[in-house]
Design goal:
The complex is a heterodimer of chains A (438) and B (335). Chain A is of the alpha/beta class and 438 residues long. Chain A is 28% helix and 22% strand. The longest helix of chain A has 18 residues. Chain B is of the alpha/beta class and 335 residues long. Classes of the chains: A alpha/beta (438), B alpha/beta (335). At the A-B interface, helix 5 of A face helix 6 of B.
Chain lengths: 438, 335
């Protein structure tokens, strides 16, 4: 395969502290050369992808998505989900195990990996269940799952309700060095809840989901992480109180990492007004104050990564009474566009945003699957190229995902993925981008 | 001859005291009162007055909505609201079809949107819907060319009930501005309370909510500053002090099972509207209740049937208000 030169882009690679104009060369699926400034590589024979005015960075890594296969293929498949990820600039995605059957044993993990290899276009790293059948009763065979190649354990969609089970999961996983990812929710407090508890829920007559329901579980998990010394990762953090709890835990040296989604960073509970079921998500969209705390948390590294929680559903699933609709937002294809609003508003630097999508998640995954989240020489050539200023309208009909469920349908976003490269292979390219044959 | 003339010119039949200004009316659906302006509520009052005049005639029927099809679709049981809408539609000579949809048909796979599309295809001009899920009329209205009238959705809204409450208060007090209205009971689960809060405050009244805090929805307290005209007073005697209007809400007996109340007995002790408590209000204070009443729970029989009770007037006014709303949605637009 001919080499590919990505020329003259603004290279941002937080793993190496690069944030300037430069070029890089991809050979045999790896980064073979990278120089800043106006330099051309010594090797003469390559195709050229002109990237002037574009950002060139390591491929995005998503620690949290739902690919729905096996079991819910009407909502998404590994084929459609990975194409949606590619359109969103993601080169590595970690899929949650709440499939049917759930990913609680080696066979189901092997199935996902096989489908990803044969039908997928980006790297898929599965997450295994904490408990057998996601029932929250007995530990899944965590050791076998670890050797099958999972990157973490989670019963996502549901919390590990039983504190003893959570403690055992944390303790048992230590031997394998993999984190437990918890969906923090006190399900007794949230029973029947539809949206954030507050004046909007009161006005709409919808049962509320209080911030305290998340914070109680975050606090419990942090205490158990301290007790066991295990690695804990908090999924989709949404409240100011959770950010405070995680900040204090990190100060105490507890091994915790946390993620936040693009929708919780950019949309408030007001999106639910009019009963838009596409704005129904768990945890729910919160308030402006929560968003400010989450952004502050990102800046201070209290929150380590941004993850999409891509949760596709069919139109029929969402075309119903609000209380009957499932939770979830289809997030891959709007992630960058919505996150860039934080950069354009001066709330986050571009370098921080890129770090939260590349280097930081790669640190949580570790190097078991190669050097991810970096443009270092010899690393797999996972590269994302985007235009930070291009405005585009969200047209869900154009989505690669089967899930058209986004409250952003019809919105104008500023910032668009132009190309996504996985191990040297161009898996997505915007129509406007021209490749020059060398 | 006179009868023929009346039939041909419906506008002669409805004689308001002041000229109608239906041009202020902008609603294609009636979903809640939170998007009504004071002027629009006044329009409803004006037309209601004319409708009350119709109801006083020996033959309480006008041809205004002849040829219009009104479908009532109730996913929840109801006696007074449903009958009230049906009578209102019939008094205006509309064709009325009543559909009893059980919630189980939803779980059996017939979606709300499918049902509404069918009603649309059958030629409905107005659909009156009651539904146990908050927001269901909004979902339905998106797929409906016909007008949607919300006859109560979950905990969310019951705009026609609130309008008839407002009308009844205004009949007695002349004006709503500056009145002190106390709503007592299960605010949290009450669509009547919500619609009345928006309606009363829109018309310039002050609202005091009186209930145990477990039955109060989040965000209405003073500290949140969302609604400066709304305040909370858990002590019923303090809440009633100087009140012009007192509204008691039905207490669902299952609220105790869900742990929101220690016992119904304690609720009666703390919150039942009794004669000695009502004496704290102004002597001419009105007592309202949206019905059906749990007599001896939220209200004592003596107060429910007492001198200050306007509970039966509420029911009568309900028909007139709903006639006015149906007229505005179907007939009033054409003027």
């Amino acid at each position: 395969m001919k080499s590919l030169l990505i020329r003259g882009g603004h290279i941002i690679d937080p793993s190496q502290g690069i944030d300037e104009i430069g070029s890089l060369l991809i050979t045999e699926g790896e980064i073979s050369w990278l120089e800043t400034g106006e330099v051309t590589p010594p090797q003469p024979d390559y195709d050229v992808l002109p990237a002037r005015g574009l950002i060139v960075c390591p491929g995005f890594i998503d620690l949290h998505c739902h690919l729905r296969q096996p079991g819910f293929e009407e909502k998404e498949t590994i084929a459609t989900g990975t194409r949606a990820a590619a359109r969103g600039g993601f080169t590595t995605i970690c899929c949650m195990p709440n499939t049917n059957p759930p990913l609680d044993n080696q066979a189901t993990i092997e199935y996902v990996k096989l489908k990803a290899t044969t039908e997928g276009v980006v790297r898929v790293l599965p997450i295994g269940c904490i408990s057998k059948g996601r029932k929250g009763e007995e530990l899944a065979e965590i050791g076998e799952l670890a050797s099958a190649g999972v990157i973490a354990f989670s019963d996502d969609g549901e919390p590990a309700v039983d504190s003893r089970l959570m403690r055992q999961a944390l303790d048992y996983s230590r031997a394998f060095g993999l984190p437990i990812i918890d969906h923090c929710e006190d399900t007794v407090l949230t029973e029947g809840g539809q949206m954030n508890e507050g004046i909007i829920a009161t006005r709409l007559g919808l049962r509320g989901i209080p911030a305290a329901a998340e914070e109680i579980m975050v606090a419990r998990d942090l205490a158990l992480a301290q007790l066991t010394g295990a690695r804990l990762h908090i999924a989709h953090t949404t409240t100011e109180g959770s950010v405070d709890l995680i900040r204090r835990a990190k100060e105490k040296g507890i091994q915790v990492t946390a993620e936040v989604t693009p929708h919780h960073l950019t949309l408030t509970e007001e999106r639910v007004i009019g009963y838009d079921t596409n704005a129904k998500v768990n945890p729910p969209l919160r308030t402006r104050e929560d968003i400010q705390a989450l952004i502050q948390g990102l800046r201070e590294n209290v929150i380590d990564v941004i993850a999409t929680d891509h949760a596709p559903h069919t139109e029929a699933d969402k075309l119903c009474e609000f209380a009957l609709a499932p939770f979830g937002i289809s997030g891959f294809e709007t992630a960058l566009g919505s996150l860039m609003s934080l950069v354009h508003d001066g709330q986050l630097t571009l370098a921080t945003l890129v770090a939260k999508l590349t280097y930081e998640p790669s640190r949580i995954i570790g190097d078991k699957y190669g050097k991810l989240g970096t443009l270092a020489i010899g690393a797999p050539a996972d590269v994302t190229i985007f235009d930070p200023n291009l405005e585009w309208a969200v047209d869900t009909k154009a989505f690669a995902s089967k899930g058209k469920n986004t409250p952003l349908a019809g919105s104008i976003l500023k910032g668009k993925i132009m190309a996504t490269i996985v191990q040297g292979k161009l898996v997505y390219k915007d129509e406007s981008l021209r490749l020059k044959e060398g | 001859m006179r009868t023929t003339q009346q039939k041909d010119n419906p506008s002669l039949l409805i004689k308001p005291r002041t000229p109608l200004t239906t041009s202020l009316w902008q609603h294609h659906h009636i979903l809640d009162l939170d998007d009504f302006t004071p002027e629009e509520i006044e329009v409803v009052f004006h037309i209601t007055e004319a409708m009350k005049e119709v109801l006083c005639r020996p033959i309480r029927k006008v041809p205004t909505l002849r040829g219009k099809t009104i479908i009532t679709l109730f996913y929840e049981s109801s006696t007074r609201t449903r009958v009230s809408f049906e009578l209102a539609a019939k008094n205006l000579s509309a064709d009325v079809v009543n559909l009893n949809a059980s919630t189980s048909s939803v779980t059996k796979g017939e979606s709300l949107v499918d049902t509404l599309s069918t009603l649309q295809a059958l030629g409905a001009d107005i659909v009156v819907m009651r539904h146990p899920q908050s927001g269901a009329p909004y979902t339905a209205a998106k797929y409906l060319e016909a007008s949607m009238v919300n006859a109560g959705d979950g905990w969310h809204a019951h705009p026609t009930q609130a309008l008839l409450d407002l009308y009844t208060i205004r009949e007695h007090k002349g004006n709503l501005r500056g009145l002190k209205a106390v709503i007592i009971g299960d605010i949290k689960h009450s669509r009547v309370a919500r619609s009345n809060i928006w309606g009363l405050t829109t018309m310039g009244a002050e609202v005091i909510l009186c209930c145990p805090f477990t039955l109060l929805p989040t965000g209405l307290d003073k500290q949140h500053h969302h609604f400066p005209q709304v305040s909370i007073e858990p002590d019923i005697e303090l809440a009633l002090d100087g009140a012009d209007v007192v509204m008691a809400l039905r207490l669902q007996l299952e609220r105790q099972q869900s742990g929101l109340l220690p016992s119904i007995r304690e609720y009666i002790q703390l919150y039942q509207l009794t004669e000695p408590r009502l004496a704290k209000a102004k002597p001419d204070a009105l007592v309202l209740h949206p019905g059906p009443i749990n007599e001896g729970v939220e209200i004592s029989p003596a107060v429910a049937r007492g001198r200050q009770s306007v509970i039966n007037e509420q029911v009568t006014n309900g028909v007139a208000v709903r006639m006015a709303l149906l007229y505005l949605l179907a007939g009033g637009k054409e003027q």
